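Troubleshooting log. The previous structure file for this entry was overwritten by mistake, so regenerating from the original sequence record. Sequence copied from the archived sheet and checked twice against the printout by T.R.
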Amino acid sequence: MIAAASDSPTRRVRDERGVASVWTMIVVTTAFVGLMALVGGGGELINERVEAKRAAEQAARAGADELSASAVRSGTDQVDAGEAIARANGVLRQAGWSGSVRVEGSRVVVTVNDTRSPQFLSLIGVGAMQINETGSADAISTPDG
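Regenerated output below.
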Protein backbone atom coordinates (compact mmCIF):
# COMPACT_ATOMS: atom_id res chain seq x y z
CA MET A 1 0.00 0.00 0.00
CA ILE A 2 1.22 3.47 -0.79
CA ALA A 3 1.52 5.86 2.05
CA ALA A 4 -0.38 9.08 1.84
CA ALA A 5 1.40 12.39 1.96
CA SER A 6 0.00 13.10 5.38
CA ASP A 7 1.54 9.95 6.77
CA SER A 8 5.14 10.96 5.87
CA PRO A 9 7.47 11.79 8.71
CA THR A 10 7.53 15.49 9.58
CA ARG A 11 10.42 17.45 8.30
CA ARG A 12 12.63 18.94 10.97
CA VAL A 13 13.25 22.67 10.82
CA ARG A 14 16.79 23.71 11.77
CA ASP A 15 16.87 25.39 15.17
CA GLU A 16 18.38 28.90 14.72
CA ARG A 17 17.95 30.20 18.22
CA GLY A 18 21.11 32.02 19.40
CA VAL A 19 22.40 32.90 15.92
CA ALA A 20 21.66 36.58 16.48
CA SER A 21 23.73 36.60 19.67
CA VAL A 22 26.69 35.01 17.87
CA TRP A 23 26.59 37.68 15.16
CA THR A 24 26.20 40.38 17.79
CA MET A 25 29.32 39.12 19.59
CA ILE A 26 31.28 39.09 16.33
CA VAL A 27 30.27 42.67 15.51
CA VAL A 28 30.88 43.93 19.06
CA THR A 29 34.29 42.23 19.27
CA THR A 30 35.35 43.67 15.91
CA ALA A 31 34.20 47.14 16.94
CA PHE A 32 36.02 46.81 20.28
CA VAL A 33 39.30 45.80 18.63
CA GLY A 34 38.98 48.68 16.17
CA LEU A 35 38.29 51.15 18.96
CA MET A 36 41.22 49.85 21.01
CA ALA A 37 43.47 50.21 17.97
CA LEU A 38 42.38 53.82 17.48
CA VAL A 39 42.69 54.79 21.14
CA GLY A 40 45.93 52.88 21.77
CA GLY A 41 47.47 53.93 18.46
CA GLY A 42 46.47 57.54 19.00
CA GLY A 43 48.12 57.46 22.40
CA GLU A 44 51.26 55.91 20.95
CA LEU A 45 51.36 58.56 18.23
CA ILE A 46 50.97 61.39 20.75
CA ASN A 47 53.79 59.92 22.89
CA GLU A 48 56.05 59.67 19.82
CA ARG A 49 55.36 63.31 18.91
CA VAL A 50 56.11 64.46 22.47
CA GLU A 51 59.38 62.49 22.46
CA ALA A 52 60.32 63.97 19.08
CA LYS A 53 59.61 67.51 20.33
CA ARG A 54 61.71 66.91 23.44
CA ALA A 55 64.57 65.50 21.40
CA ALA A 56 64.47 68.48 19.02
CA GLU A 57 64.51 70.97 21.88
CA GLN A 58 67.32 69.17 23.72
CA ALA A 59 69.40 68.96 20.56
CA ALA A 60 68.82 72.65 19.85
CA ARG A 61 69.86 73.56 23.40
CA ALA A 62 73.00 71.42 23.13
CA GLY A 63 73.84 73.02 19.79
CA ALA A 64 73.27 76.55 21.11
CA ASP A 65 75.76 75.86 23.90
CA GLU A 66 78.54 75.60 21.30
CA LEU A 67 79.62 79.25 21.35
CA SER A 68 82.44 80.28 19.08
CA ALA A 69 85.74 81.17 20.74
CA SER A 70 85.68 84.70 19.34
CA ALA A 71 82.14 85.20 20.66
CA VAL A 72 83.19 84.15 24.14
CA ARG A 73 86.10 86.63 24.07
CA SER A 74 83.94 89.48 22.79
CA GLY A 75 80.90 88.68 24.94
CA THR A 76 78.52 88.18 22.02
CA ASP A 77 76.10 85.34 21.47
CA GLN A 78 77.58 83.81 18.33
CA VAL A 79 77.40 80.05 17.74
CA ASP A 80 80.14 77.97 16.12
CA ALA A 81 77.94 76.54 13.34
CA GLY A 82 80.00 73.42 12.63
CA GLU A 83 80.26 72.41 16.28
CA ALA A 84 76.61 73.25 16.95
CA ILE A 85 75.38 71.10 14.05
CA ALA A 86 77.62 68.18 15.03
CA ARG A 87 76.56 68.29 18.68
CA ALA A 88 72.85 68.65 17.89
CA ASN A 89 73.00 65.74 15.44
CA GLY A 90 74.74 63.66 18.10
CA VAL A 91 71.99 64.37 20.61
CA LEU A 92 69.33 63.46 18.02
CA ARG A 93 71.05 60.18 17.18
CA GLN A 94 71.46 59.32 20.84
CA ALA A 95 67.72 59.91 21.38
CA GLY A 96 66.92 57.62 18.44
CA TRP A 97 65.68 60.26 16.00
CA SER A 98 66.84 61.71 12.71
CA GLY A 99 66.38 65.21 11.43
CA SER A 100 68.06 68.38 10.32
CA VAL A 101 69.92 71.17 12.11
CA ARG A 102 70.45 74.73 10.97
CA VAL A 103 72.13 77.70 12.60
CA GLU A 104 70.62 81.15 12.16
CA GLY A 105 73.03 83.58 13.80
CA SER A 106 72.81 82.85 17.52
CA ARG A 107 69.79 80.55 17.17
CA VAL A 108 69.93 76.80 16.55
CA VAL A 109 66.85 75.21 14.97
CA VAL A 110 66.42 71.43 14.99
CA THR A 111 63.69 69.67 13.02
CA VAL A 112 62.96 66.00 13.66
CA ASN A 113 61.81 64.20 10.49
CA ASP A 114 61.23 60.53 11.13
CA THR A 115 58.69 57.76 10.80
CA ARG A 116 57.24 55.54 13.48
CA SER A 117 54.92 52.53 13.26
CA PRO A 118 52.41 52.47 16.13
CA GLN A 119 51.70 48.86 17.09
CA PHE A 120 47.99 49.28 17.82
CA LEU A 121 47.24 51.07 14.55
CA SER A 122 48.66 48.14 12.63
CA LEU A 123 45.63 46.16 13.87
CA ILE A 124 43.43 48.25 11.60
CA GLY A 125 45.86 48.41 8.70
CA VAL A 126 47.60 51.74 9.38
CA GLY A 127 51.32 51.61 8.68
CA ALA A 128 54.17 54.01 9.38
CA MET A 129 53.35 57.58 10.35
CA GLN A 130 55.52 60.60 9.56
CA ILE A 131 56.55 62.72 12.56
CA ASN A 132 57.83 66.29 12.14
CA GLU A 133 58.64 68.37 15.21
CA THR A 134 60.82 71.47 15.58
CA GLY A 135 62.72 72.90 18.51
CA SER A 136 64.95 75.95 18.76
CA ALA A 137 67.30 77.58 21.25
CA ASP A 138 69.23 80.81 21.45
CA ALA A 139 72.86 81.04 22.50
CA ILE A 140 73.45 82.86 25.78
CA SER A 141 76.93 83.99 26.72
CA THR A 142 76.07 86.16 29.73
CA PRO A 143 73.74 85.62 32.67
CA ASP A 144 71.43 88.48 31.59
CA GLY A 145 71.11 86.95 28.09
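The CA atoms of residues 101 and 109 lie 6 Å apart. Archived copy saved in two places this time.
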